[in-house]
Amino acid sequence: HLSKRLATVGAFVPAGARVADIGSDHAYLPANLALNHQISYAVAGEVVKGPFENAQHEIKKLALTTIVQTRLADGLAAIQPADQIDTITIAGMGGPLIRHILATGEAQLIGVKRLVLQPNVGAETVRDWLMTHQFKLVAERILAEDGHTYEVLVADRTTTAVTYSAAELLFGPYLLAEKSPVFVEKWQHELQRAQAAVQQMQQAKVAPTAHLDAAQAKIALIKGVLE
Ligand code: SAM
Fold it and tell me: How far does residue 23's CA lie from ligand 1's centre (Å)?
């Protein structure tokens, strides 16, 4: 049984897909997709030995070794050309790490049609990478579970240029259009955090910095959306 967070990621994996789940830990996501006959093949990639062994154990226990390959590898290095991966899932990490994994594995992205990404924080930097690498957002979800808010970004390869505004990068074009209660609550909280950060910087009486400018720009964007 998957968490609501991972089930949401899984819901955007196309039927019959060949998936690489990077940073798979226990391989719960590819295992669940395989058990539900939603995918035809998966690679579960993990860079740390302990979680990799968890993945191996899980896949053996469920007798899924013919469908799910577990690999000890850094990022997209888990993917080999023969895998013919068409979908990549990366969940449960910070946005900057997801971006780093995508940026350092561009050779393995050839043939990949869909990315399903779930940054715990910093979705903005992930959207920025997508925009500059011919991936177009096709859906977004925001959900709350166990006191955390999670965003799921679904992007398909495109041949036409996509441009997102500063607000769309920060909030997500689909999430911004939807403005769900979870979204509003998240950004009310982020507004308070940004305001507290600005107050601290101002009380420290240091010369205005790029950090202060960035925080104030963010506050203006959030206020514009919450109004
Ligand atoms: N994807 C699962 C989920 O969403 O529940 C596990 C998330 S877990 C918090 C993040 C996992 O990513 C850890 O097991 C960590 O070892 C792995 N990881 C971090 N950097 C990685 C990288 N460069 N390549 C592969 N795995 C990585």
Answer: 3
